[in-house]
Amino acid sequence: MNVKEIIAKNISGLRKQKGMTQAELADKLCYSNKSISKWERADSLPDAEMLYKIAEFFGVDVNYLFKEHEYNKMNDEENRILEKKNLRFKLAFVIATILILIILSGILVMSLLEYLGITPESIAGTIFLFIAGLCFLVEAILIVLKYFKYVKIFTSLVLWSIIFGTSLLVPTFPILIMLAIGIVVQSVIVVFPKIDDILTTLHKKKKEKKNIDNIEKNESQKK
Questions:
Q1: DSSP for residue 32
Q2: What is the b/e burial string over 48-71, where b = at least 16 CB atoms within 10 angstroms of the residue's CB?
Q3: DSSP for residue 72
Q4: What is the pLDDT of residues 81-122, one digit of tens each?
Q5: Is residue 69 helix, strand or coil?
Q6: Which of 108, 125, 131, 206 could anchor a disulfide with 168, C-beta 3.0 to 4.6 Å?
């Protein structure tokens, strides 16, 4: 094991020993979590000043980072907690980025439509459809991150944003029919056999299958 790999293992081991995510460590060291990730993968090394700072933060001597050490493996519960914290940080980052994009895009769209002399109803309708698209994007990201808890909420937001947006852009279309369609679809979303439970069950089954495959693979290697 070379020096890069030893330092990488020590940073990762000390961090996990404290139950910290890469984002939390990055925050404490006033650095980016991408850099922490690179250090832990042995893709790059912290400079001398940062090595001293890391050692001081974890309460070890700088020389400690250059020597091989064994660390206790995290149990399933600890891994679950750390994974949950990582998901929260990712989710917070994604939502913050999307909110910034919404604000900037909203300002741009409003300015452009006002310049073109388009009616306030058209502006509002366009914004509602724009919000529907963004909600759909957030929903897709939540599913990818396996954070199924809020999928129904965002599905409902997409539905009603489309309905209100369309009613403003096409005022000739009967609003009562659109509301009736919305209520029917919303009922299906609420009554449908718990979409989030189905998604969670599928994820658990996939995880269990992966664990069984790993156990079988380890047993076959031992034989």
A1: -
A2: eeebebbbeebeeeeeebeeeeee
A3: P
A4: 666 666 776 677 777 777 777 767 766 766 776 676 667 677
A5: coil
A6: 125
- Please report the sign of the dihedral spanned by the C-alpha atoms of residue 198, residue 201, residue 202, residue 203: positive
- Give the pair of three-digit tokens for residue 21: 């995510």
What is the spatial distance between Cα 138 and Cα 134, in angstroms, rounded to a whole number?
A: 6
Render pLDDT for 25-79 as a digit per residue (tens, 0 to 9): 887 887 777 888 888 888 888 888 888 888 888 888 888 889 888 776 656 666 6
Alpha carbon distances (Å) from 156 to 8, 88, 187, 188: 45, 22, 10, 11
- Residues 135-140 have a mean pLDDT of 80
Compute the radius of gyration of the chain from its Cα atoms. Answer: 25
Share of the chain above pLDDT 90, in %: 0
Nearest to 46, CA basis, from 4, 1, 2: 4
> Is residue 93 within 8 Å of 39, Cβ to Cβ?
no
Q: Which amino acid is at 17?
A: Q
Q: What global pTM score does this model have? A: 0.40
Q: What is the C-alpha separation between 50 and 126, in angstroms, rounded?
A: 49
